[in-house]
Design a protein that fits this description.
With 1195 residues, the chain is mainly α. It is built from 70 helices and two strands.
């Protein structure tokens, strides 16, 4: 029987194996776990032995006990018991959430959740987990759905389509291909699914590609219906090959679609016969709808399937003569397209969103994005568009020559161009001719020979012309394979280009590369050539070498570079060896520990360590000779992986001084290495020595710095990083180290705080909770709190909230607790640390979103209002935070938050802060009925700060606030406080700046139309508000001179009356939101039209008959400016015209004709015909109807 303490020896791997063998022996001996449990635990290895034995004996209670431990080492070890998943009494969602999770630390809960969905495979249990977490943790629940039965998946998927992202869709489709079909079928009916799909449709399409081989018909149906021809990438070669092998009939049915957009072109060409390729190209050429896509480059793989003797004639027939038969103008079948975007449309019963006006400093325009439409921005954009349109792509002479001979064979091209060559007037023209001929050789030896014979006659061409020809020949024709006589012609033509290793007169490294390749393939390399090549090294991978040539060239380059590196200086040798590694990697040559390059790098490391460091790094990353170069890697890499490799393979390399120096000087953490030392090497002398080395370094030179506080603090911050590994190695001695550090005085508080902050890394763990936060330090308490158990969290939060120093920790911990703990923490923070409460509020909003509790905002709101945000308070970051984080505030809180924010920023008296905050009022205006009680203070402040030079920027919010009055008394109170001062302010502006007043007056009048108040039965004073504004108008605007303005106000009054009358007559229609937006439009519009006809009759009686034309102009402008645009407005106007025709008197009905003439363009054709028929029936205006409607059709 094994007795603790368990002692291990050897390398890390040997210690693992020894521990496993002890566990197997104990299990085989028949001893029970209870016997071993009673043994004392002297080291972490003793506990690991017990856990592994319990796992082998399947002792559930002990495994669960370790899952609840504070040390994640034991939690992770316990989770290696995969059999635990079969114990449904333990692994079920209710037991986990109610019993196990509350008693586990937070990281352990996360790890157990991950372990559960990785290992749980039973369909019934997976279904139970999915249903349990579906509503509150969908992202976790969806991980179980793929392991449920197919029947359940098909039942559940239609209910969660709006939540599915591309990755879960892929996993579910792999299990059940029908899921992909269900998802794509829903795009036609579900707007939310369609919106999410269109945001990332390529990703969703990629996620269902897995269905191809399990249910190809589903995938191909999706492709033929929803493939985005303008945006999707083609299928991979393997997918294309599968379709052509197993489902070729789908391609045959729609060859144009699959060829032009879907399939991989080269794979398609390889799978089709020569005759099929030829026929397909002809069919594509006839497709006029593919004209922009169809060109030689697009179908080159198909054309190249033809034999060379037939290819030229076929290309000429298709691309030059266009002899392809009768063209086809339209697709012969329905082509795929992504579902259309459905944008939310505004309704005529919606209210306009006004934006604040900036009317100070001589400028008047709406703030925000609308300002981008002003001429300042429009002019440069227009100029840029004109400049882009004026750019004409001009073809060069070489392009024109290529186009002329594109579909001509080499022999004919050589015959034609040989004659032109002598008559070419410039070297550049002769270069172009040679370039075309090089391209026509196709790399064929006989063609290259003929070309070089011609080129030999022009060996006196300028050097840069010959260099261009040689470069092109090397790239296109693989000249290193030429016969000797032809090769000599090339060398003769390339004289002076450095092909013999001499200094070239013009750059032509491709020619030198061709000479080198030819010599390497021949097994010999002239010194002059190799010297010139090494000056401008290349791996030669850019050339088309055959497999056999690649092997020879790789071997030649290795010999060449290795030999050069042996005799070169260290820096040059390092460069050569780096190039050699590039070459070996390019040619995929396997590097072994015995390879010459490894020996060369080791030799170089002995000569110059720093120069060899990058080469050793490359070998390590390539996993070459890691064990053989272990000590070198340790010296040069000095990272965690190297240290762990020493523990695994070579304990003789353990040098506590070297390892201590690495830990001290490195800027990275070595947590994994330190953890392995603390677990498996705890009693080794090396660990004791390393710990002593770190401790000595931590206290080093402290005595000499005590008189200089600044130097002391700087030194302590530098040394504080040693606290992390020291804490991990100290174990039970950590308390002694802290006591020793504390005994040296408060001057070392930075080091002491760093060591306390890492107390959780000690193994065995230090009882930080029993120390109290003052002794433990806030960071250690914070770590303990954030990792704490759910069952203890509420009590811990209350304890932390009792002290000002730990309030921020309490706030962070409360986010993980229930509502009561959150309320308690925020209440305490609001009293003791208000700034921390405000900052934590936004963390709370980001975490909980729309589920945020309003009571938390109610706690923090008074704090924001009472805090001093002025410049003197030095709270710039806090001011910026509350202003920039509006986007994270939940929609239910945002209106009240915006009002509060406006008040807070106005109190700062900092112009640059609140000058743009007027935009916040736009959000407030949208939710005005909900926050009207808190708005009065804001409006008073706006009036207080406004003057003639900088008037109010948002007049509409004043008007709407008045329209929301609930009674006449309420209206009088509001009008007395705000209405009269507001109108007086406008009067003052009118007297000083008439043009500014016109802007403010226009928005004021438009804002009298307020559907939110008109449809609210509680708002009973809307008509009185409009009348008050009309009375104000009469004080400076005579009716006769401003008929249109008064007519618009009267129309708003008539609209209000129509709304109230319709709501009273049809309460059922307006009680249902959907019916109100459909049937309500016709009801209100018809009554509105009747009221208009009655008022028009009164105007005609009071004035003259031609007032109808004036009124028509005012009504048309009213519809355009006041009513929100959209299809519902067109329907509303139709109903208005019907009301006018029904209630109108005699020729006064011509008002309907005028309005129809100006608004008919936004009506659908059936509505236009319906109105025309109604107007034609009116005999009094029949002639006018014919005349006006004919004129409207003409224009």
């Amino acid at each position: 029987m094994c007795v603790t303490p368990i002692s291990l020896s050897g390398t890390l791997g040997s210690r693992h194996r020894r521990l496993n063998s002890l566990v197997r022996e104990a299990g085989a001996s028949g001893a029970s776990l209870q016997e071993f449990q009673a043994l004392p635990e002297h080291s972490p290895v003793d506990r690991l032995f017990k856990i592994d034995l319990a796992s082998q004996l399947r002792y559930v209670d002990y495994i669960i006990q370790n899952l609840q431990d504070d040390d994640m080492l034991y939690v992770s070890r316990a989770l290696k018991s995969k059999w635990l998943v079969d114990h449904h009494d333990v692994v079920n969602p209710k037991h986990l959430e109610d019993v196990l999770f509350p008693n586990m630390i937070k990281p352990a809960v996360s790890k157990l959740k991950h372990w559960t969905y990785i290992n749980l495979r039973d369909p019934a249990m997976c279904r139970e987990f999915y249903l349990y977490y579906k509503d509150n943790a969908f992202e976790f629940a969806i991980k179980f759905l793929s392991h449920c039965s197919n029947e359940f998946i098909l039942e559940e998927v239609p209910t969660i389509l709006t939540k599915l992202s591309s990755q879960p869709l892929k996993i579910l489709s792999e299990k059940c291909p029908k899921v992909a079909e269900i998802y794509y079928n829903s795009l036609a009916t579900d707007e939310e699914v369609r919106r999410r799909y269109l945001e990332n449709q390529q990703s969703y399409y990629n996620s269902v590609k897995c269905v191809l081989k399990s249910d190809a018909d589903v995938f191909l149906d999706i492709t033929e219906k929803y493939f985005d021809m303008n945006g999707f990438r083609r299928l991979s070669p393997s997918s294309s090959d599968y379709i052509l092998r197993c489902h070729k009939h789908r391609f045959t049915n729609k060859p144009e679609l699959y060829t032009a957009y879907v399939l991989h072109m080269q794979t398609l060409a390889d799978r089709l016969s020569v005759e099929e390729c030829q026929e397909l190209v002809m069919r594509l050429a006839r497709a006029k709808y593919l004209q922009s896509w169809f060109q030689y480059k697009a179908v080159e793989p198909l054309v190249k399937r033809l034999s060379p003797d037939k290819r030229a004639a076929f290309k000429k027939r298709v691309f030059v003569d266009k002899d392809v038969g009768e063209s086809v103008d339209e697709w012969p079948y329905k082509v795929p397209a992504p579902p259309e975007h459905t944008y939310p449309e505004e309704h005529v019963f919606d209210d306009q969103d006004f934006r604040p006006l900036y009317v100070g400093g001589g400028i008047s325009y709406p703030c925000g994005v609308d300002s981008l439409r002003c001429g300042t921005f429009a002019m440069p954009m227009a100029m840029m568009q004109n400049m882009q349109m004026s750019r004409i792509v001009m073809k060069t002479e070489l392009d024109k020559l290529f186009d002329e001979f594109r579909f001509v064979g080499f022999s004919r091209a050589l015959y034609e161009l040989r004659r032109r060559l002598g008559g070419a007037g410039s070297p550049e023209r002769r270069r172009d001719i040679f370039m075309v001929l090089v391209s026509k050789t196709g790399g064929r030896s006989e063609a290259v020979s003929a070309l070089l014979i011609l080129a030999a006659r022009h060996s006196n061409e300028p050097v840069h012309i010959r260099a261009a020809v040689v470069r092109s020949l090397v790239k296109r024709a693989q000249v290193w394979r030429l016969p000797a006589d032809v090769w000599n012609n090339l060398l003769e033509f390339g004289h002076g280009l450095g092909l013999d290793g001499s200094t070239p007169e013009a750059e032509c490294k491709e020619g030198l590369h061709a000479v080198l390749i030819r010599q390497l393939l021949a097994g010999e390399c002239q010194p002059a050539i190799s010297t010139a090549f090494l000056k401008e090294f290349s791996t030669l991978s850019e050339y088309s070498l055959s497999p056999a040539e690649r092997v020879q060239v790789a071997a030649g380059l290795e010999n060449l570079l290795s030999a050069a590196a042996l005799v070169a200086k260290p820096f040059v040798a390092a460069k050569l060896l780096d190039q050699l590694l590039d070459a070996l990697n390019t040619y995929r040559v396997t590097i072994e520990a015995a390879s010459p390059v490894v020996g060369a790098i080791v030799s170089l490391a002995s000569r110059n360590a720093e120069v060899a460091r990058p080469l050793l790094q490359r070998l390590y990353q390539a996993k070459v000779a890691r064990r053989e170069l272990l000590r070198l890697n340790l010296e040069f890499r000095r990272d965690q992986a190297s240290l762990i490799n020493v523990l695994r393979h070579d304990l003789l390399a353990l040098d506590y001084k070297q390892f201590g120096e690495i830990l001290i000087t490195s800027k990275t953490n070595f947590d994994s290495f330190v953890s392995k030392l603390a677990i498996y090497f705890q009693k080794d002398d090396f660990v004791m020595q390393l710990r002593a080395k770190l401790k000595e370094k931590l206290f080093e030179n402290i005595e000499h710095m005590e008189n200089n506080d600044k130097t002391m603090k700087s030194y302590q911050k530098k040394q504080a990083k040693l606290a992390r590994p020291l804490a991990g190695l100290s174990g039970r001695d950590l308390e002694m180290d802290l006591q020793e550090l504390d005994s040296k005085g408060p001057e070392l508080r930075i080091l002491a705080a760093a060591l306390r902050a890492n107390a959780h890394r000690a193994r065995p763990a230090v009882a930080v909770a029993s120390w109290g936060w003052r002794r433990a330090g806030v960071k250690a308490v914070a770590t303990r709190a954030m990792r704490g158990r759910q069952a203890e969290r509420a009590e811990l939060t209350r304890a932390l909230a009792a002290h000002r120093r730990t309030l921020r920790v309490a706030l962070a911990n409360s986010m993980l607790s229930a509502r009561e703990a959150q309320v308690h923490a925020f209440t305490a923070a609001a009293q003791r640390r208000p700034a921390a409460a405000v900052r934590a509020l936004f963390i709370y909003f980001r975490r909980f979103g729309d589920k945020s509790d309003v009571s938390i905002w109610d706690i923090v709101k008074p704090v924001m209002l009472s805090m001093d945000m002025s410049i003197l308070s030095k709270r710039d970051n806090l001011r910026r935070l509350i202003k920039d984080q509006v986007k994270v505030v939940p929609s239910s809180i945002k209106p009240d938050y915006c009002v509060t924010l406006y008040i807070v920023l106005l109190k700062t008296k900092i112009k640059y802060l609140y000058s743009n905050v007027d935009n916040i009022l736009c959000e407030v205006s949208k939710h005005l009925p909900q926050i009207e009680d808190s708005l009065e203070l804001v409006l008073l402040k706006m009036l207080e700060d406004a003057d003639v030079r900088e008037p109010v920027t948002y007049p509409s919010i004043f008007v709407r606030y008045l329209l929301l009055s609930k009674s006449d008394e309420d209206l009088e109170s509001r009008f007395e406080k705000l209405g009269k001062p507001f109108l007086a302010h406008l009067d003052a502006v009118r007297k000083e700046h008439d043009w500014v007043f016109r802007k403010l007056f226009s928005e004021t009048m438009k804002s009298l139309m307020y559907n939110a108040a008109f449809f609210d039965p509680k708002c009973t004073s809307c008509l009185s508000v409009i009348e008050k504004f009309m009375a104000w108008m009469e004080s400076f605007m005579p009716r006769e001179q401003h008929f249109k303005q008064y007519a618009r106000v009267h129309l708003t009054m008539l609209y209000y009356k129509a709304v109230r009358a319709s709501v009273q007559q049809l309460p059922a229609v307006f009680a249902a939101a959907r019916r109100r937006r459909v049937e309500g439009v016709d009801a209100v519009g018809f009554v509105f039209g009747r009221y208009i006809a009655r008022e028009l009759a009164q105007l005609v009686t009071a004035y003259f008959d031609s007032v109808v034309e004036l009124y028509a102009d005012a009504l048309a402008d009213y519809v355009e400016v006041t009513l929100v645009a959209g299809s519902s407005r067109a329907q509303f106007v139709v109903s208005v015209l019907k009301g006018i025709l029904a209630e109108g008197v005699g020729t006064q009905r011509r008002l309907a004709v005028y309005i129809f003439k100006r608004r008919h363009y936004e009506m659908k054709e059936p509505l236009q015909k319906e109105l025309e028929e109604l107007m034609y029936k009116e005999k009094d205006i029949e002639v006018l109807v014919h005349a006006e409607l004919e004129r409207a059709r003409f224009y």
